[in-house]
Specification:
Elements: H1 13-30, E1 37-40, E2 47-49, H2 53-58, H3 60-63, H4 65-68, H5 75-88, E3 92-94, H6 96-103, E4 109-113, H7 117-128, E5 139-143, H8 147-154, E6 162-166, H9 174-189, E7 194-201, H10 206-223, E8 229-235, H11 247-252, E9 264-270, H12 274-291
Parallel strand pairs: 1-4, 1-6, 4-5, 6-7
Antiparallel strand pairs: 2-3, 7-9, 8-9
Helix pairs in contact: 1-6, 1-12, 8-9, 9-10
């Protein structure tokens, strides 16, 4: 969706869940010396300015990552917090491409896709200026094309090992259908890949979310009944408290009479790494305490 701008939401509770899971998956891949390939279907710009007017307008980072880093986090969240803090010291928040780029090694490959013309130019600049390992030592491909098309065209990777992050804006019903269709298509030819699908928790989209997850799960299990599939959901409000409101209403509601548009978000993970299985419950339980009804 070309109208979507993630700068309004960078560093919110949904980003925190998504990026915590992403960090854990990459940590699991890094435990072996063998190279891997990372795919990111909806890359965005990679870095976000916490002093940008769009971020300040919604205040989501203040209620999200800037609130979390003031907390004494459990061990499961320590790695993510320390990584993000290095960016926050510069008034920045790392999107998934920056996290992926900073954690990948010289032998690994990062493949990014972004359709928005302004965002893809920002993405190129942000990765070029990344103050991690020299860009010349890292293999990065940036595609100005549909993430769904990119993933189907470029999998399975030559490395065989790898993971994919899928996080569309879900502003259109078609995104739920495309997510299910694409994952089923790609899993069929890349059964050992790790798939991470972020999805919003929206009361008015309950049917679409359920259908998407059921279709993916049933298909994966039909190919290999022993495949590890996990759902991690971070709820910051109750389902019953939710009602759909416009952004203008939310921003003008000083008494918080209008509940948030998102009551939480989730991650569906296929071929879940063992370290994430061990630590996710502790991490998400803590995050819910920090962000519940904030």
């Amino acid at each position: 969706m070309l109208s979507y701008q993630h700068a309004y939401h960078a560093g919110n509770h949904a980003d925190i869940l998504k990026h915590y899971v992403l960090c854990s998956v990459i940590q699991g891949l890094n435990k072996k010396e063998k190279p891997y390939t990372l795919y990111d279907t909806h890359a965005g710009s990679g870095l976000y300015d916490m002093l940008d007017n769009r971020s300040l307008k919604t205040n989501e980072a203040q209620k999200g990552i800037l609130k979390l880093v003031k907390s004494e986090v459990p061990p499961a969240l320590g790695f993510y917090k320390n990584l993000v803090q290095k960016y926050l010291d510069k008034n920045l928040y790392p999107g998934s491409p920056a996290i992926e780029y900073s954690l990948m090694r010289g032998q690994d490959t990062l493949i990014l896709s972004e359709l928005h013309p302004a965002e893809i130019e920002n993405l190129k600049k942000n990765l070029q200026s990344a103050d991690t390992v020299s860009a010349s030592k890292k293999s990065v491909q940036i595609h100005n094309r549909s993430g769904w098309e990119m993933l189907k065209a470029l999998t399975p990777p030559v490395t065989h090992r790898g993971a994919v992050l899928i996080d569309p804006s879900y502003e259109e019903t078609d995104d739920y259908l495309q997510a299910a269709k694409t994952i089923c298509t790609v899993y069929k030819k890349w059964t050992n890949g790790i798939f991470m699908l972020w999805y919003p928790l929206l009361a008015h989209r309950e049917a679409e979310i359920k259908s998407m997850i059921t279709e993916i799960t049933d298909f994966v299990k039909s190919i290999n009944a022993n495949t590890q599939i996990d759902r991690y959901e971070l709820c910051v409000n109750s389902f019953d408290a939710h009602k759909e409101t416009s952004l203008e209403q939310v921003l003008s509601d000083s008494d918080k009479k209008n509940p948030p548009r998102l009551y939480g978000s989730g991650m569906l993970v296929i071929n879940t790494p063992w370290n994430l299985i061990q630590e996710a419950d502790q991490a998400i339980s803590f995050l819910e305490q920090v962000f519940w009804n904030s």
